[in-house]
Specification:
Strand content of chain B: under 5%
Shape of chain A: elongated
Radius of gyration of chain B: 21 Å
Number of strands of chain B: 2
Strand order of the largest sheet of chain B: 1-2
Largest sheet of chain B: 2 strands, antiparallel
Oligomer: heterodimer
Strand order of the largest sheet of chain A: 1-2
Order of helices and strands of chain B: HHEEHHHHHHHHHHHHHHHHHHH
Strand content of chain A: under 5%
Structural class of chain B: mainly alpha
Largest interface: A-B, 103 and 114 residues
Structural class of chain A: mainly alpha
Chain lengths: 775, 493
């Protein structure tokens, strides 16, 4: 499968880069890739006992490898992804106008399908994570396909950030499992039955990731927004495939973590809430596509409960319903897209008599909706029936009771919104004034795919026993348990009774609830909460940045200096006054006098108010140092110091001529006291630390070696010279280069200033000439 | 092999001298390319040798015994840094020429650029603390010239902040080096570990922290980073690309040396705090801005936090991941600035509000942005993902959960700010107004676009060959974690 995933990527890249490619050719390329994938998966996967594995060692040192394993469940998922993908791609060829958007859609669509294929075939959690993030990115680009619309852009962002945050949770889970268990291979994980606080944390994090991707409460809100994407995208990503990624993850992990109470309750509570909430929201919608989106949310809640619980019967029912849902939901979305295409609207309040105008579509979508509602003899009936049986049989305590209640409630709503949708779209309603009609009949390629999905839903139901048989192996590959098959006619039992009651009650509700009641506004939405968080991030960041990035050089210097002083205080307090007992305070009165001058000059710098005087005083400190050097018998050093100080003062004075005499008024946050404390603090701590450091010396200095080697080896009597040009001549070369570069910089600035002045004066002259000519 | 070691800094230095003499721009270009390519070739030679032999190459300048002379030391870390830096310097030079931001701006561009290259080489090779200081001076002066090459008011103003803060950094570093010498009587990085270890705790703490403050300013860690986002955005993108890619990394490189060689210890809680704050404060800055160059500048800060995190964790795995992060980060960051240069050339602006719909105008340009942007945000399958994975893995391994959570949050916010750029500049109605599908910059500036693409291909290659590369980084970390290896190689055992 890895090779095929790569093939997706290559074809996608080709399509995206060949801008002149015709849309149909692009679509054909994509369909070919999907067909190849489906055939390979079927050939390799069906009937073989040892799943075909492919692996690439990516970073062995980190234990990272990309591995795919075509076990039963993977085969089913790969087939769903590639077959539905091929059909939707064929549909899209008629849906989009020819042009660059269509080619871009096709390329991104193929890339997305490749990522999804990798995800569902992943043999370990790491591989799954890699493709997981790729699907997020592709979906971002696909939702934003119509990037000129602000709502599409924002929906894309919401989807990316919510699923991206979930992805990070999954990443953390992957690493935690790697550290705690030593493997992320899904089969290995199951066999090692890991436990411990770290493992529980990982399980919750992975579950959170799955919830974001599969739009579970409280992360459900991004999915309806994603309906801003074109219909083929919605049909494929947001019903049949991408949102199933979380379900796949839960299905893979439930056998490992299903026994954890926190896992089970999260699954039941979030899944149940999502199922009911999604159903209620679907009842409020008037846009057919949004209604379907909320129904997807609801159905995902259902699937979460089924596969997340990790109870054998429920897992099997979950796998079966996953297939059923993918088939009927894709058909419904494509059908709504066809209606939108034909009439220009999706508002179910604006249709009357559409059923007579588009009878084929009405029948097809009616059957698909019946499957969604769980009506016999469609596939959706058989799978829901199986789910009820499993939950009734399960003895996992209070959690299953809650799950059962949620499933029954959610299923009533499923039937109700299916009914509402069909009635709104196709029934003749005399209250509708000036209903929308078919402007141009949808082409065959917009209708045939809907038919294919309908036929699949119907045949799947009629042949439920056979289909159920095929799905036994996939479910077994998840939890290793033998499952009893689906049945078209399960016999008279409690589950059937509940099932029939659900359909009856739901149908009545769906028919009777008036639009006005249904369409009342929602008070708090996840969307608003997300927006508030997002805005909070922006304003909070701005507030922090304004503080840290004041732009004031004074502030920056104050912080750096305060840190230097603080760091040294931390060192000094470990052993206060260390070294001071050994300190020779003075070798003679001359030094004391000079040092006193230096101190007075330095202190005076703080006191004076004019730049000019301050510069002179700083120079004074330098000269005092020079005298000290001379007193210690280093005349060459003293001479150098005097030269440097003299030059510095001259330059200072030249520059200061251009500037105001006094210092700028200090900002309010830095009164004189603060600045004095910081500067004096740096000076005193550095001096104290220097004393401490000098006293700590244990080993002899390299200077002694220099003295020994200087004359005999280097042939120089002046050690300083030998150090500068021989022992450490490389440093000298470096410093010369520094000086040279500085000279270059200054020359350059001067030249540039002159050049600019020249251009400025040229411009002024030109203006003057022009003015003169005018007058 | 030992003779090759001097070339990465000697050749650019020689080139710098020659480009001062020869003013013709074609001659200058030839000299620059020859010397930089020569330096790169020598670095590759050293790298290949080290990848096979797993030892450390030492060159004693002047042939004096190790304790007396300045030594150049090439271990796996420095060789890798030299190669990445060398390659980037060559490619960005080509970009700058394509951008007309090289010798067209000033005849002093080439000398300054080559001095910068020499300084970077010296910083990565020096085995001597004072010589390292000299390397920093070279870097600072050359970068200042490059930053103010046009001498505009904005450049001089932000250049002032840059130069003052960096001079302060030099002062702190010089003080630290002087105090180290006062305490130990040597500045040889091979001899220092033993002698520093004998010092009283307080002295060790003081010297250690002073060095960290100095290198921390260079690396732009919290709370010493503020000079960076103020200064970088004023230079042309080709200059910023090199600064962003390399200068702060020199600081990180030195922090690695301080933490592994001079003051070895398994990790540091202080650094982990700094790392977390640097990542988050940096990314908040990026999120709050609305100009591409500023956003990217803040991301430099944020990303530095990740590398500090690796140093702070301090295990062998963490160090390997940090080295890998460096390798990943240098081309990614540089390429984003190059893309920014392309955007600016195409639209005349990099303010998010002034530009829109670029993806419609040029798909390839959108790809050029998207790949490094996603890599920066740490999304698979790009190199940034692997780098972050390595660090997070090392963090969880060492039980440092809090900083990993901060890292993951920071990468989410990085994604936020990258999508901010994408949504504002690449999506939406094309603006400034140009007919759909027509884009000039990639076709009319083949040198700029091909060099940008080359760097991005490099980042993708980092992800593709991550297996062997990470293996090499693990070897580098193994050399780092045991200072005895360094000591034995330099002093002879």
């Amino acid at each position: 499968m890895l090779v095929l995933v790569l093939l997706h990527a290559v074809v996608a890249a080709v399509v995206l880069s060949a801008t002149r490619l015709r849309g149909t050719v692009a679509a054909a390329l994509g369909i070919a890739v999907f067909a190849a994938t489906a055939v390979t998966a079927a050939l390799q996967g069906i009937g073989s006992d040892v799943p075909a594995t492919q692996s690439w060692d990516w970073v062995p040192d980190l234990g990272l490898q990309l591995t795919t394993r075509l076990d039963g469940f993977a085969v089913v998922m790969v087939l769903l992804v590639s077959v539905i993908g091929a059909i939707v791609l064929a549909y899209s060829a008629s849906y989009f106008e020819p042009g660059p958007t269509r080619v871009r859609f096709t390329g991104l669509f193929i890339a997305f399908a490749g990522a999804m294929t990798g995800l569902v075939a992943a043999a370990d959690l790491f591989t799954m994570f890699v493709f997981w993030e790729l699907t997020s990115v592709c979906s971002f680009l696909l939702i934003g396909l119509n990037d000129r619309s602000a709502s599409a852009r924002n929906a894309a962002l919401r989807a990316l950030l919510v699923t991206g945050a979930g992805g990070l949770c999954l990443l953390a889970a992957v690493i935690l499992l790697q550290v705690a268990v030593g493997t992320t291979d899904l089969a290995e994980l199951g066999s090692r039955s890991p436990a411990g606080a770290m493992v529980t944390t990982a399980a919750v994090l992975a579950l959170t990731g799955a919830f974001t991707k599969s739009a579970q409460f409280p992360f459900h809100f991004w999915l309806p927004g994603a309906m801003a994407a074109p219909t083929p995208v919605s049909a494929y990503l947001h019903s049949a495939t991408m949102v199933k990624a979380g379900i796949v993850l839960m299905a893979r992990l439930a056998p490992v973590f299903g026994d954890l109470a926190v896992w089970r309750w999260l699954v039941v509570v979030c899944g149940g809430t999502t199922m009911v909430l999604g159903g209620l929201r679907a009842m409020r919608q008037t846009d057919a596509k949004l209604l379907l989106a909320h129904s997807t949310v609801s159905q995902l809640g259902f699937l979460t409960i089924l596969v997340g619980l990790g109870i054998p019967g429920a897992t099997y029912a979950g796998v079966a319903h996953l297939v059923a849902h993918a088939v009927f939901k894709a058909g419904l979305f494509l059908g709504v897209g066809a209606i939108d295409h034909a009439t220009g609207t999706r508002d179910i309040r604006r249709f009357s008599g559409l059923g007579r105008e588009m009878p084929q579509l009405a029948v097809m979508m009616g059957l698909a909706a019946a499957s969604m509602a769980g009506v016999i003899p469609l596939l959706g009936f058989a799978t829901k029936e199986k789910a009820l049986v499993a939950l009734l049989d399960a003895d996992a305590g209070a959690a299953t009771v809650v799950a059962l209640v949620a499933v029954i409630g959610g299923s009533v709503l499923s039937t109700a919104y299916s009914m509402r949708l069909m009635r709104g779209l196709f029934a003749t309603d005399h209250r509708v004034i000036d209903p929308e009609h078919v402007h141009h009949a949808p082409g065959g390629w917009l209708v045939v795919p809907v038919g294919l999905f309908t036929v699949a839903s119907l045949l799947g139901g009629l042949l439920a026993d056979a289909v159920g048989g095929w799905l036994q192996a996939p479910a077994r590959s998840l939890d290793g348990v033998e499952h009893s098959s689906l049945h078209l006619w399960p016999g008279l039992n409690l589950a059937l009774g509940i099932s029939l009651a659900i359909v009856a009650v739901g149908a009545v509700i769906g028919w009777r609830v008036p639009d006005e009641v249904a369409a009342s506004p929602v008070r708090v939405s996840g969307e608003q909460i997300f927006q508030r968080l997002f805005d909070g991030l922006l304003t909070g960041s701005k507030r922090i940045t304004v503080v840290t990035q004041s732009g004031s050089l004074l502030a920056y210097l104050a912080v750096v200096m305060a840190i230097v002083a603080g760091v040294l205080v931390a060192a000094i307090v470990t052993d206060p006054l260390a070294g001071f007992d050994e300190l020779t305070w003075s070798d003679g009165w001359m030094q004391l006098v000079v040092a006193a001058f230096a101190v007075v000059f330095a202190a005076a710098v703080i006191a004076v108010r004019e730049r000019f005087v301050a510069a002179l005083l700083i120079g004074g400190v330098g000269f005092a140092c020079a005298v000290l050097f001379a007193l210690y018998g280093a005349p060459d050093l003293a001479l150098t110091q005097i030269l440097v100080e003299t030059l510095t003062i001259v330059v200072f004075l030249l520059v200061l001529r251009q500037m105001p005499r006094g210092f700028d008024a200090p900002p309010a946050w830095a009164p004189r006291v603060v600045r004095v404390v910081i500067s004096a603090g740096v000076g005193i701590t550095v001096a104290a630390f220097a004393v401490m450091v000098s006293a700590a010396r244990t080993a002899p200095s390299v200077g002694e070696t220099y003295a020994e080697l200087s004359l005999p080896e280097a042939g120089g009597k002046n050690i300083v010279n030998v150090i500068l040009v021989d022992f450490r001549g490389f440093d000298t070369l470096g410093e010369i280069t520094v000086l040279g570069t500085a000279a270059l910089g200054v020359t350059n600035l001067v030249r540039m200033a002159r050049r600019r002045r020249r251009t400025a004066s040229d411009a002024a002259t030109a203006a003057a000439v022009a003015e003169a000519e005018l007058s | 092999m030992n003779a090759l070691l001097g070339l990465p800094l000697a050749l650019p230095l020689l080139g710098a001298a020659l480009t001062i003499v020869f003013r013709s721009s074609s001659v200058q270009r030839a000299i620059s390319f020859v010397s930089l390519l020569g330096a790169l070739g020598a670095s590759i030679g050293v790298l290949v040798h080290l990848a096979i032999e797993d030892d450390i190459v030492v060159s004693r300048l002047g042939g004096w015994p190790a304790a007396v002379s300045i030594t150049l030391v090439g271990d796996r870390l420095s060789a890798l840094m030299l190669v990445i830096a060398g390659a980037l310097l060559v490619i960005v030079l080509a970009f700058a020429i394509g951008q007309r931001a090289a010798d067209e701006r000033s005849p002093f561009y080439h000398p300054a650029y080559l001095v910068l290259a020499a300084g970077i080489g010296q910083a990565f090779l020096s085995g001597d603390l004072f010589n390292l200081f000299v390397a920093f001076e070279l870097l600072l002066m050359a970068s200042y010239v490059l930053l103010t090459l046009e001498g505009t008011d904005a450049q001089v103003r932000s250049g002032t902040t840059y130069v003052v803060l960096n001079v302060v950094e030099s002062m702190v570093l010089l003080t630290a080096v002087g105090l180290v010498f006062a305490a130990t009587g040597t500045v040889s990085m091979a001899e220092l570990p033993e002698r520093l270890a004998e010092l009283p705790d307080g002295v060790q703490t003081g010297l250690h922290l002073l060095l960290l403050v100095a290198f921390g300013i260079k690396a732009a860690v919290f709370p010493l980073f503020f000079w960076l986002p103020d200064a970088y955005p004023t230079a042309p993108s080709s200059v910023t690309a090199v600064f962003a890619g390399l200068l702060t990394k020199v600081g990180i490189y030195c922090m690695i040396r301080v933490e592994t060689l001079l003051f070895p210890g398994q990790g540091s809680t202080l650094l982990l705090w700094i790392a977390g704050l640097t990542m988050l404060i940096g990314v908040f800055g990026a999120v709050s801005h609305v100009e591409m160059k500023r956003i990217l500048s803040f991301h430099i800060v944020s990303q530095i936090g990740y590398m500090v995190m690796g140093i702070g964790i301090g295990t062998e795995l963490a160090l390997a991941a940090t080295v890998f992060y460096l390798v990943h980060h240098i081309p990614v960051k540089a390429s984003l600035f190059l893309v920014q240069g392309l955007v600016e050339r195409e639209t005349g602006s990099t303010a998010l509000d002034d530009v829109g719909g670029l993806a419609r105008r040029s798909g390839p340009l959108a790809v050029l942005f998207l790949v490094p942007a996603l890599s920066l945000a740490g999304l698979p399958p790009f190199s940034g993902f692997l780098a972050k994975f390595g660090l997070a893995r090392a963090g969880f391994d060492a039980g440092q959960h809090v900083v990993v959570v901060a890292a993951l949050l920071a990468s989410l916010f990085t994604l936020v700010s990258m999508t901010k750029i994408w949504m504002a500049m690449f999506w939406g109605d094309p603006y400034p107004d140009v007919a759909e599908g027509r884009v000039g910059v990639l076709r009319h500036h083949p040198l700029m676009s091909s060099t940008t693409a080359l760097v991005i291909v490099g980042t993708v290659a980092v992800a593709l060959v991550a297996g062997p590369l990470f293996d090499y980084c693990t070897g580098a970390a193994a050399q780092l974690i045991d200072p005895g290896i360094y000591r034995a190689a330099v002093l002879g055992s």
